[in-house]
Amino acid sequence: MRFFVRQTLSLLLCLAALTAMAQDGSTAYNFLNVTSSAKIYGLGGVNISLVDDDISVFDQNPALLGPEMSNMVGVNYMHYIGGSNFAGARYTHSAGERGAWAAAIRYFGYGSMQEALPDGSIVGSFSPKDLAFGGTYSHDFNDRLRGGITLNMLYSSYADYSAFAIGADLGINYYDADRDLSLSAVIANAGGQLKRFNEAYDRLPFDIRLGWSQSFGSFPLRFSITAWNLTKWHLPFTETGDGTSDDEPKVKDTFVSNLFRHLVFGVDLISSPNYYISLGYNYKTRTDMSTYSRSFISGFSLGAGIKVKNFGVGLAFAQPHTGATTLLFNISYNFDELLH
After folding, report:
1. Can you give the pTM of this predicted structure?
2. ∠332-47-171 over CA atoms, to 5°?
3. Hey, which of 19, 45, 81, 87 has its CA 20 to 30 A from 37?
């Protein structure tokens, strides 16, 4: 245990140095904020406190991984905005009675794009892509407190340019099973580039997040609130109206708008361990799409899943914009249950 703490602290110091080096550059690698979990996507796309035996829930908080997920495999596919298609796979295994580890690979493809010279002449096409190779380790400090760390190796290829970066998530979770109360904190996407695309230094979307999830007695719903983008308070956006008037666009930067752009709300049905239904609302997603052509359901997301013995399926849907319908599909299999 002491060795794990020392190695973790050493790694965090290195990543903190990389993060500090990159603070003057532009933000890149925002694909790291796209979840691979249908359950989390159905809860608004950001959730760090959902305690569940689903292999994909530790997607955004490594402290949600545990030995109860031993010998599980999961795959995911997501049709994202435009011609983007994402896919991934992960495997988990216990490490003694109090620890667990996982390995994952994720692919982010953005479709075919035209390649042009500075004078505007088209010289061909290319297919930009990102790859993330991740390893996660978690450890139970006691019956209620668990910590975890995820290390990601990030490779990007855009036409003739490529880059390599390293990043990490560090999380902690407190879970009271008697009250079904879960509290979490995460330092997300610490690190930076080791190889640049060009002269510019692109930084990872470093973030600090807090999360709460809880059900109440026999009531079959669990509620979640996640606070993210906590490294900065002001998150202004431009409101363009509904397109029926000639009013000038207005910049919104009030206390209330900033507060709610930091919060993601979710609720999921937990009446049975064999199925779930989840509903989420992400105000930042809705306001980021604040044009007259956004749909009524912009900012909302819906997920559902079933589990039959050791096999699970999950599906989530969202429509951030009228021209951008997204679908996320998960399949999981528990080999541990099969062996027992």
Report:
1. 0.86
2. 95
3. 19
Q: How far apart are CA 16 and CA 2, in angstroms?
A: 21
- Number of folded domains in the chain? 1
Task: Find out whether 72 and 54 touch, Cβ atoms under 8 Å.
Answer: no
Q: Which of 190, 167, 209, 233 is nearest to 50 (CA)?
A: 209
Q: How many H helices and E strands in the chain?
A: 5, 18
Q: How far apart are CA 252 and CA 24, in angstroms?
A: 26
Close Cβ partners of 66 (under 8 Å, ≥ 6 residues apart): 100, 138, 140, 146
* CATH number of the domain residue 162 falls in: 2.40.160.60
Q: What is the pLDDT of residues 57-110, one digit of tens each?
A: 999 999 999 999 999 999 999 998 778 899 999 999 999 999 999 999 999 998
Q: Could you identify the residue written with the tokens 């990030």?
A: 154
- How does pLDDT run across 188-210, given as a tens digit for each residue? 999 999 988 887 788 999 999 99
